[in-house]
């Protein structure tokens, strides 16, 4: 390092920087000059480490350096903490300030000021007092922020320039203007909206005036109907009084008629009583006759049942006899056939083979027969298993064919929809084709837009869906993760330049479709006359439905296929939550869309907006059922796997079948070789002899069984004859008893009929008279009671009526003497007149009065807003009149310096203020020209090279010198990318600016410099070198000053002077 001349540092300039265990330094100290400090050295030696120490030591954050995220990462490897010590030049007559910051590996920091522990806040106040702005790129430009400065927006550059060079009031006024303009714009928009709403309300109020007048006429007619209805009890009471008088006269007349009829009916009642006594006697005789008849009939029925059992028994015995004879004949035929077979086989057995081979042949025959049976059984089992597997394979192949055909049908629909997308939006079509070809690069599935994946469950709602889901949402891709979202945008939007919408909701409250909840139950929805939600009318993958819920609120959109009446819409409007907000905010009724909102002003009434349902025809006919296609594909995969297993199993069973078949053929060949006619004959002879012996040993008792059965038949026939004789006798007694019963029944019925007729006539006449008398009495009592009750009611009504109502009743009673029919006719006529006046209802009046109130409030709001706008405009005009000239003057000075700097290198440059109606968009516009044939152009990343941007950046920073208040400026490797000519001229300009009187302290960090550059006595050059041959300061502190080459140069100069003299 070098010690520069001992000129006086400006207040806030850096006098000294010391570091311990910081990044690459174990122990280092820089003593800095008050003007231009050139810090040079090879890459990696620690030049930028000094810049990092200045930033962090003066309270800057690691983000400003863009080198590390945490401050603990600046501690040297192998150490637990690092220390930065910075000495700042104090104000006149004040000592220098020494700031020390200790940084720990765990990102903690400790601060001290002049050797005493202090808080970071107090240290920051001291740094602000020196006007040190570490976060201002115009003052502190580290290596990794050079590109950021060149890429800084003109708006931000203006802010940073004001902070670095302007007065405190300048930046404050700028921020105040931005805030006032934003408020002005907000109030103006609100005022315009209120004026528009006010005009609409006045228009609706005027259109409702006629309806209000109709309503008032309806109210008058309703009041008249109420008066007539109130008068009804008086008319009814008058009619009841007349009815009471008539009922009393009728009751007296009925009593006289009843007494006269009662005297005439006496003899008829006595004859009826005599006839009833005769009937009772005849009825007793009839009951005795009926009992005897029933007894005889029961006995006859029992005998008939016995006869039926006789017949059944005889039939059973005959059938048994027939069976005995058939069994005997069958046994005889079987014995004869067996004897014939025996004779034939005995003849064959007579020709026996050689006795020496007989035993061997018999043993082999028996053994082969058993093996043949076993092999045949195993062959049949293998054949059955193979047939079963073939049956399953046939069914699987048929099912696979059906699934493949269905998938082809679905894919045909999918291709039709894709061609439709190609017509609608070419970019979306290209993105879909690319996605289908590159699915493998995504972590999860990326879902195609709803225009392809959405299927209408109810085709009648297609227009409704298209009116709710806008075109952009219909063409939106859906990702399931942020990683896939970035991959999609980088490939499709950035690389392929396709302008298609894409979304992902992994970080939202509803990352998946199952997180959405219904806003009301199906029962509530039905009660409000809705058919359902639009979400239920479509089918799509869950992530696509989730996107439609986020973007189009499809889960909140209710619908009714038919148009709802005004009363039904009013019911929906009054269906609100506990805090008064409508539950159903959006719905479709027929061909109209309705949107319910709640006002933010006044009584916060709910108002409705209406739009026509207009289809965009984005959805083509039909749709691809992706879920069904996935099910079919899975079913085919599973069937193919099962088919492979079954084919393997069939091959195994078929191999076993072939082995068994070969074995059977071999056994048959062996059996043919060893069997002969003699073998079979010998076997048959033995079997047939045993069969004959068994048949002959069976006893023949057929004749005995037949005789026993015939004897039982004869005994039952004798018993049957005796029963028949008795049955005839019983039948005769039953006939006589029934005949007697019929005669007596007729006589009893005749007597009863005569008695009942007489008694009925007498009783009927008496009942009629009594009923009439009672009805007359009841009528009189009823009318009297009703009249009394109505009188009490009238008195009660008169008590609760107002004087006006009583006067109206009296006037009506004096003017007319109406009957009930006349009263009803007048009420009906008034009601007809009322019904003829359409449209009047209380809700209209309430809405009219509510609108009138809203009109008043809106007028007040509009006047208030206009007053606020005028006030804000005045404030903006006043502040701008103070801020704009100061800003123009500041930029003018900077532009002059900037132009002079560019002129010195044979180029041109200028700086001006970009002005706009919105103060957010005011900016500093840097314009440069590096070639003669060019015009001045804005400094941007796209127009100028890296070297040109570096030249412009350093010249702009130097131009701030004329207006700056910063104690120092840091520029790290600004000369990188410049050609030698520009670098030499920039260096020369920097030396001139930095080394002039009263200039700010400068730090220029660079890894290399051109030879023969301009030098000034105020410059201090710091050469940084690190290596294995340098002494370790921690072990040899005395050699800390080894790098101060200037000291040794001064000693050499004096020595040369002494020698020459």
TrEMBL record:
Primary localization class, coarse: nucleus
InterPro entries: P-loop_NTPase, RecF/RecN/SMC_N
Coiled coil: 191-264, 692-775, 848-882
SUPFAM superfamilies, alphabetized: P-loop containing nucleoside triphosphate hydrolases
Biased composition annotated in UniProt, kind: Basic and acidic residues: 337-366, 374-384
UniProt-recorded Gene Ontology molecular function terms: ATP binding; single-stranded DNA binding
Entry GO terms, CC: nucleus; Smc5-Smc6 complex
Keyword entries, A-Z: ATP-binding, Chromosome, Coiled coil, Nucleotide-binding, Nucleus
Subcellular location(s) of the protein: Chromosome; Nucleus
GO biological process, one term: chromosome segregation
Residues in RecF/RecN/SMC N-terminal domain copies: 14-1006
Region (Disordered): 337-388
Similarity-based family: Belongs to the SMC family. SMC5 subfamily.
UniProt name for this protein: Structural maintenance of chromosomes protein 5
Lineage: Eukaryota, Fungi, Dikarya, Ascomycota, Saccharomycotina
């Amino acid at each position: 390092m070098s010690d520069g001349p001992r000129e006086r540092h400006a207040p806030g300039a850096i006098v000294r920087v010391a570091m311990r265990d910081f990044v690459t330094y174990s122990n280092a100290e820089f003593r800095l000059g008050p003007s231009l400090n050139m810090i040079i050295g090879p890459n990696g030696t620690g030049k930028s480490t000094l810049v990092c120490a200045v930033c962090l030591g003066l309270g800057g954050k690691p983000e400003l350096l863009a080198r590390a995220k945490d401050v603990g990462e600046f501690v040297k490897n192998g150490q637990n903490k690092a220390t930065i010590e910075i000495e700042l030049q104090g104000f006149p007559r004040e000592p220098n300030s020494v700031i020390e910051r200790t940084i720990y590996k765990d990102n903690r920091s400790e601060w001290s000021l002049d050797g005493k522990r202090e808080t970071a806040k107090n240290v920051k106040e001291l740094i602000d007092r020196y006007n040190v702005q570490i976060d201002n790129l115009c003052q502190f430009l580290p290596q990794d922020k050079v590109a950021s400065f060149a890429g800084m927006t003109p708006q931000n550059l203006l802010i940073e320039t004001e902070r670095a060079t302007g007065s405190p009031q300048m930046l404050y006024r700028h921020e105040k203007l931005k805030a006032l303009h934003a408020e002005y714009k907000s109030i103006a928009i609100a005022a315009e909206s209120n004026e528009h709403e006010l005009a609409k309300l006045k228009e609706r109020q005027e259109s409702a005036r006629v309806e209000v007048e109709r309503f008032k006429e309806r109210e008058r007619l309703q009041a008249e109907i109420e008066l007539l209805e109130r008068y009804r009890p008086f008319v009814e009471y008058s009619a009841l009084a007349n009815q009471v008088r008539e009922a009393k006269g009728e009751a007296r007349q009925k009593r006289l008629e009843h007494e006269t009829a009662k005297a005439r009916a006496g003899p008829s009642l006595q004859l009826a009583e005599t006839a009833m006594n005769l009937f009772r006697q005849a009825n007793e005789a009839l009951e005795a006759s009926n009992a005897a008849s029933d007894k005889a009939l029961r006995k006859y029925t029992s005998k008939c049942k016995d006869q039926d059992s006789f017949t059944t028994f005889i039939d059973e015995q005959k059938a048994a006899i027939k069976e005995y004879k058939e069994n005997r004949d069958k046994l005889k035929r079987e014995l004869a056939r067996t004897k014939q077979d025996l004779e034939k086989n005995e003849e064959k057995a007579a020709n026996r083979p050689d006795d020496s081979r007989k035993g061997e042949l018999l043993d082999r025959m028996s053994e082969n027969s058993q093996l043949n049976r076993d092999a045949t059984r195993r062959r049949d089992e293998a054949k059955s298993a193979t047939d079963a597997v073939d049956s399953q394979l046939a069914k699987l192949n048929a099912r696979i064919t059906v699934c493949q055909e269905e998938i082809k049908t679905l894919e045909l629909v999918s291709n039709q929809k894709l061609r439709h997308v190609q017509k609608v939006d070419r970019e979306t079509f290209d993105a879909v084709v690319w996605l289908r070809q590159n699915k493998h690069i995504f972590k999860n599935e990326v879902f195609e837009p709803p225009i392809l994946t959405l299927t209408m469950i109810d085709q009648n709602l297609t227009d409704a869906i298209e009116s709710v889901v806008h075109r952009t949402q219909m063409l939106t891709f859906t990702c399931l993760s942020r990683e896939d979202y970035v991959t999609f945008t980088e490939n499709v939007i950035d690389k392929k330049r396709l302008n298609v919408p894409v979304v992902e909701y992994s970080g939202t409250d509803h990352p998946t479709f199952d997180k959405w909840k219904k806003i009301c139950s199906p029962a509530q929805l039905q009660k409000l006359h809705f058919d359902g939600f639009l979400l239920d009318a479509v089918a799509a993958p869950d992530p696509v439905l989730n996107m439609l819920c986020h973007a189009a609120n499809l889960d909140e959109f209710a619908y009714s296929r038919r148009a709802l009446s005004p009363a039904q819409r009013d019911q929906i409007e009054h269906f609100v939550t506990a805090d008064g907000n409508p539950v159903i905010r959006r719905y479709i009724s027929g061909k109209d869309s309705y949107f319910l909102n709640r006002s933010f002003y006044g009584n916060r009434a709910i108002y409705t907006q209406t739009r026509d349902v207009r289809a965009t025809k984005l959805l083509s006919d039909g749709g691809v059922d992706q879920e069904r296609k996935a099910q079919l594909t899975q079913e085919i995969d599973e069937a193919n796997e099962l088919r492979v297993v079954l084919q393997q199993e069939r091959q195994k069973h078929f191999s076993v079948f072939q082995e068994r078949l070969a074995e059977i053929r071999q056994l048959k060949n062996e059996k043919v070789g060893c069997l002969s006619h003699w073998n079979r004959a010998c076997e048959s002879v033995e079997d047939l002899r045993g069969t004959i012996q068994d048949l002959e040993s069976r006893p023949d008792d057929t004749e005995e069984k037949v005789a026993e059965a015939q004897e039982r038949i004869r005994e039952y026939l004798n018993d049957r004859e005796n029963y028949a004789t008795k049955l005839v006798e019983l039948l005769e007694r039953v006939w006589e008893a029934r005949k007697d019963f019929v005669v007596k029944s007729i006589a009893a019925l005749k007597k009863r009929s005569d008695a009942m007729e007489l008694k009925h006539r007498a009783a009927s006449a008496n009942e009629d008279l009594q009923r009439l008398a009672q009805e007359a009495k009841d009528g009189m009592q009823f009318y009297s009671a009703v009249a009394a009750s109505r009188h009490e009611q009238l008195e009660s009504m008169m008590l609760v009526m107002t004087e006006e109502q009583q006067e109206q009743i009296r006037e009506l009673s004096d003017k007319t003497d109406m009957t009930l029919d006349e009263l009803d006719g007048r009420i009906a006529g008034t009601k007809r007149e009322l019904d003829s006046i359409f449209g009047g209802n209380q809700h209209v009046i309430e809405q009219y009065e509510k609108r009138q109130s809203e009109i008043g409030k809106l007028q007040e709001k509009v006047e208030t807003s206009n007053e606020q706008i005028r006030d804000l405009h005045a404030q903006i005009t006043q502040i701008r009149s103070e801020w704009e000239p100061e800003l123009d003057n500041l930029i003018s000075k900077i532009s002059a310096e900037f132009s002079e700097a560019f002129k010195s290198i044979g180029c041109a440059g200028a700086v001006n203020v970009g002005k706009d109606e919105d103060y957010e968009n005011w900016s500093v516009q840097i314009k440069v020209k590096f070639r003669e044939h060019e015009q001045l152009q804005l400094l941007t990343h796209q127009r100028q090279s890296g070297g040109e941007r570096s030249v412009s950046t350093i010249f702009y920073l130097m131009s701030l010198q004329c207006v700056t208040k910063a104690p120092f400026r840091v520029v790290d490797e600004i000369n990188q990318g410049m050609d030698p000519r520009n670098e030499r001229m920039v260096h020369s300009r920097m030396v001139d600016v930095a080394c002039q009187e009263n200039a700010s302290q400068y730090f220029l960090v660079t890894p290399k410099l051109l030879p023969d550059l301009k030098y000034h006595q105020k410059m201090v050059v710091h050469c940084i070198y690190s290596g294995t041959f340098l002494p370790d300061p921690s072990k040899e502190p005395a050699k800390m000053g080894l790098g101060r080459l200037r000291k040794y140069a001064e000693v050499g100069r004096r020595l040369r002077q002494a020698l020459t003299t």
